[in-house]
Design brief:
By secondary structure, the protein is an alpha/beta fold. It is built from 11 helices and 22 strands. Strands 5-2-1-9-19 form a 5-stranded parallel beta sheet, covered by helices on one side. The chain has a 4-stranded parallel beta sheet with strand order 13-12-11-17, covered by helices on one side. The radius of gyration is 22 Å and the shape is globular. Flavin-adenine dinucleotide (FAD) binds next to helix 2, strand 2, helix 3, helix 10 and strand 20.
Length: 427
């Protein structure tokens, strides 16, 4: 639908249950704490958006907060690799947005954001139009298949539907789980994107290790082929190598330094410079990443770049003091992880509240804490803090435990549950 058609569609009035999702078609009229309350609209109810919404409301209950997501339920990417191989149940990952909205006192709207008019301060969704005083964009990532030369529409369709990366929350994971469980033998390829700006640096290594563990447990006549452009896993390498040698040996082949030029999803070949064509029977093709589409659409990405063009310390879009960007959509070189997104979101919530009050606050960097399981009850972790000096970010401190242990696995589960409780008021 073009803008004019959309505006016509949006002219009809709508209603809403506070904390609920009952909208008709048209412009969206939401009750505010008071007629003069400023409204903050948060786009994306992932690890970042949920935390921003909660902490803005907590910091100042008189601010009207509207959290929008296209999905009906929260699905956690962290811990999802364990669900793929039946180590944890689905109930651990899926949570109610309504309970979070109800508990923390903001509105939740299930809608897809189609466009934003930053001059008029309006968000256009498939359910209607909503005004904002301040906007937080927390829409996460998209896949950048072009960088792997997958451009043909038929090939793109196959890549997305037959080999879904499952690094964006939702239905991709369900399909991938079925593929793993139905795999009868052969080579199950897992690809790692290049660079360090893809979502969850250790994620593909954890996934490959757990799929190998699952094949070994079920005595599947096949193995995982892990194709990696890096020379070694960029984090927790010792822990993953331990697992590949001692826990899942014979069920995983590691191909480091494998610069991927192209993935032929029709003939099932990963084309690399170092190893030539690597054939696969089935697999999980994770391409490079870029910011979610809506940020491109509103002119929030510099030409030739892939992440939101924001002030690195204040998080507002360059040239727009009313629009902030949070979570994996950001362009700072922090690890794209849930813990980073959630700790950063608390700072962004305070920054939005300061902007509403016409004040400033000192910068506070986020913190990355990331666990990876290597079998059904052992895990490793890394913890990173950051600093900003002379216009550059660097690590303030790096701590890691790369010895797989049950203690780390218990801490992994406790970490996830604490986040679900904080973000979603989960039991
Ligand atoms: C398999 C896997 C394992 C991981 N493991 C870990 C881990 O162990 N530890 C860790 O810290 N991190 C981990 N991560 C990373 C973590 O999931 C992400 O870094 C985190 O989800 C980023 O949060 P976000 O809010 O930026 O994005 P998301 O959580 O992806 O949320 C973005 C939301 O925006 C919504 N959205 C996008 N566009 C629109 C639109 N136009 N309209 C409406 N809604 C929209 C999406 O539906 C989505 O809900 C893992 C990720 C994966 C995939």
């Amino acid at each position: 639908m073009d803008r004019r058609g959309f505006l016509k569609f949006a002219g009809i009035s709508a209603g809403l249950f506070v904390g609920g999702v009952s909208f008709g078609k048209g412009s969206i009229n939401l009750p505010k704490p008071s007629p003069k309350s400023p409204r903050v609209v948060v786009i994306g109810a992932g690890w970042s958006g949920l935390t921003v919404a909660k902490y803005i409301k907590k910091g100042n209950p008189s601010v009207d907060v509207v959290l929008i997501d296209k999905r009906a339920h929260f699905f956690s990417c962290p811990v999802s690799n364990l669900w793929l191989v039946d180590i944890v149940p689905l109930e651990m990952l899926v949570h109610s947005y309504l309970k979070a909205a109800d508990t923390y006192g903001y509105h939740f709207l299930q809608a897809t954001v189609i466009d934003i008019d930053r001059n008029k301060r309006k968000v256009y969704t498939d359910k209607g139009v909503i005004d904002y005083d301040f906007l937080v964009l927390a829409p996460g990532i998209d896949y950048d298949y072009e960088r792997w030369n997958i451009k043909d529409p038929e090939e793109l369709e196959i890549a997305k539907t037959k080999y879904p990366p499952a690094f964006i929350p939702g239905s991709e994971h369900i399909y991938l789980k079925k593929k793993i469980h139905n795999f009868e033998g052969g080579e199950f390829v897992v690809t790692v994107p290049p660079g360090l700006d893809y979502r969850c640096i250790p994620g593909p290594y954890e996934r490959a290790t757990l799929i190998a563990w699952f094949f070994k447990k079920d005595k599947v006549k096949g193995k995982v082929i892990l194709v990696d452009p890096h020379s070694d896993p960029p984090v927790k390498a010792k822990g993953f190598h331990y697992a590949w040698e001692k826990i899942v040996n014979g069920y995983i082949d590691y191909y480091p330094n494998a610069d991927i030029n192209y993935v032929d999803v029709i003939n099932r070949k990963v084309r690399t410079e170092a190893y030539g064509d690597i054939d696969f029977t089935d697999g999980n093709i994770y391409p490079p990443c870029k910011v979610a589409d809506i940020v491109y659409k509103i002119g929030g990405v510099k030409k030739g770049e892939r992440w939101a063009n924001i002030d690195p310390l204040k998080y507002n879009l360059i040239g727009d003091e009313r629009v902030f960007v949070s979570g994996d959509a950001r362009n700072q070189p922090f690890s794209k992880s849930g813990n980073t997104a959630a700790t950063e979101a608390k700072y962004i919530a305070r920054r939005v509240l300061a902007s509403i009050a016409g004040k400033d606050i000192p910068y506070k960097p986020p913190m990355t804490l990331c666990y990876s399981a290597v079998d059904e009850n052992k895990a490793v972790w890394v913890r990173l803090t950051y600093k900003y000096e002379k216009g550059q970010f660097s690590f303030a401190r790096v701590r890691t435990d790369e010895n797989p242990s049950q203690k780390n696995f218990k801490a992994y589960m406790a970490w996830a549950k604490a986040h679900y409780k904080d973000m979603l008021a989960a039991d």
